[in-house]
Specification:
Layout (H helix, E strand, L loop, with lengths): L10 H7 L26 H8 L14 H14 L3 E5 L2 H12 L5 E5 L4 H10 L6 E5 L4 H8 L4 E5 L11 H11 L2 E5 L4 H4 L9 E5 L13 E5 L1 H16 L5 H11 L2 H21 L3 E5 L9 H7 L6 E6 L2 H11 L4 E2 L9 E3 L11 H6 L7 E4 L5 H13 L3 H4 L1
Parallel strand pairs: 2-3, 2-4, 4-5, 5-6, 10-11
Antiparallel strand pairs: 1-7, 6-7, 8-9, 9-12, 11-12
Helix pairs in contact: 3-10, 4-9, 6-7, 11-15, 13-15
């Protein structure tokens, strides 16, 4: 039957159907999981051609698996990329990418606000092998332009972990391109549902698929997407022998399952987070608040131009600082005190002592990560119940601490 429209299908439709025909797998509606570590060749000649790249095929599970391949195709499509690579964790994706692109003598320019383990990889890992790293305030585009001259890679997150600082993707990637540097954007917090950095000039995009892409807190995985040639190099170098960070077939299957509801989940996370951000903005006990989707919040104007909604994360501080934050977090009953984000459950954590402990105290202060900062990952519970929980926890903060 002739298709009535040439309109590009929506992200949920593509995440559910792209790249798979049940007729190729005995009619199985759900793509099968290929639980094998190695693959047989019909002949020596066929195996040789596959190894030489002259023929498509599978060789060994560390390089690629059919279940993984379908996931890579779908994530790349959602991000608007030519190709993708799925590995065993978000840090696996970042490290495999950087180890492939960099060599001794190269220089990386990165934003000063980064996930704690990314910060550690850049400042304590790469530098051991002759790669220099310069941390810059990416809110200062002139400083970025000065630093980018002669750099090999420009790296940043937006919204940034943990304080949700928003970076102008088009402006920074434009600076990188003019300087001859490759730009890499961590899009974990926004997901391709809300933001697509490649469309704004980025060369590569990385994700911790552990978070929103998986969506259920039951797996570890990472993704990098970009041009086919770059992804091939990362697969054959960064994955195959530099890190060995292969994803398991079952994990790839679970992320594929998560993608089917990604759009629904991310939009609901965003709706609930906005309602909570509006509540916090009016509460007298809040000292500062950052939520990209909230008018008046830092970075909202930039976020409005590159994100379709504010996402599911909120960063804030209470009057009374650290002690007030501890009292608030300990009083929550629905929200769990746990690191990570993007789960169905609402999670709250203290970055200075948890996800960003890799920063020293002076480094946190210098880079805008206060000891009183709280990061809230808003889950999929009913919003009325979350609001009741948060209001009760705010009320539980002792008055002598809340001043």
């Amino acid at each position: 039957m002739q298709r009535k429209s040439n309109r590009r299908q929506g992200p949920s439709t593509r995440a559910i159907h792209l790249g798979y025909d049940p007729a190729t797998a005995n009619g199985a509606l759900t793509p099968p999981v290929y639980m094998t570590s190695t693959y047989a060749f019909e002949s020596v000649e066929q195996g040789t051609e596959i190894f030489e790249g002259k023929r498509e095929g599978y060789i060994y599970g560390r390089t690629k698996n059919p279940t993984q391949g379908l996931l890579e195709e779908r994530v790349a499509d959602l991000e608007g990329a030519e190709a993708g690579l799925v590995v065993s964790s978000g840090m696996g994706a970042i490290s495999a990418t950087l180890w492939t692109l960099l060599k001794a003598g190269d220089r990386v320019v990165a934003d000063k606000i980064l996930y704690g383990n990314t910060f550690a990889l850049l400042t304590k890992g790469l530098t051991k092998f002759g790669v220099s790293v310069e941390l810059v305030d990416f809110g200062d585009l002139q400083a970025v332009a000065r630093a980018a001259a002669g750099a090999r890679v420009v790296y940043f997150e937006t919204p940034a972990n943990p304080n949700l600082r928003v970076i102008d993707i088009a402006a920074v990637t434009g600076i990188a391109r003019r300087a001859g540097a490759l730009s890499i954007v961590d899009n974990t917090f926004a997901t391709p549902i809300l933001q697509r950095p490649l469309e704004l000039g980025a060369d590569l995009v990385v994700h911790s698929a552990t978070k929103y892409l998986g969506g259920h807190g039951d797996l570890l995985a990472g993704v990098v997407v970009g041009k086919a040639a770059d992804i091939h190099a990362i697969r054959m170098n960064g994955l195959r022998y530099l890190t060995g960070a292969a994803v398991s077939p079952l994990t790839a299957f679970l992320v594929l399952r998560g993608l089917k509801t990604l759009e629904l989940r991310v939009l609901q996370h965003s709706r609930s987070a906005l309602a909570i951000a509006e509540l916090l903005a009016e509460h007298p006990g809040i000292a500062s608040l950052s939520y990209p989707g909230l008018p008046g919040s830092p970075g909202h104007a930039v976020a409005k131009g590159q994100m379709s909604a504010g996402g599911g994360l909120i960063a804030f501080e209470l009057k009374g600082g650290y002690q007030a934050g501890v009292a608030f977090m300990n009083a929550l009953e629905i929200a769990s005190r746990a690191v990570s984000l993007g789960d169905a459950e609402t999670l709250v954590q203290h970055p200075a002592s948890m996800t960003h402990a890799a920063y020293g105290a002076e480094e946190r202060l210098r880079h805008g990560i206060s000891d009183s900062l709280i990061r809230l990952s808003v889950g999929l519970e009913n919003i009325e119940d979350l609001i009741d929980d948060i209001e009760a926890a705010l009320s539980a903060v002792p008055s002598e601490v809340a001043r």
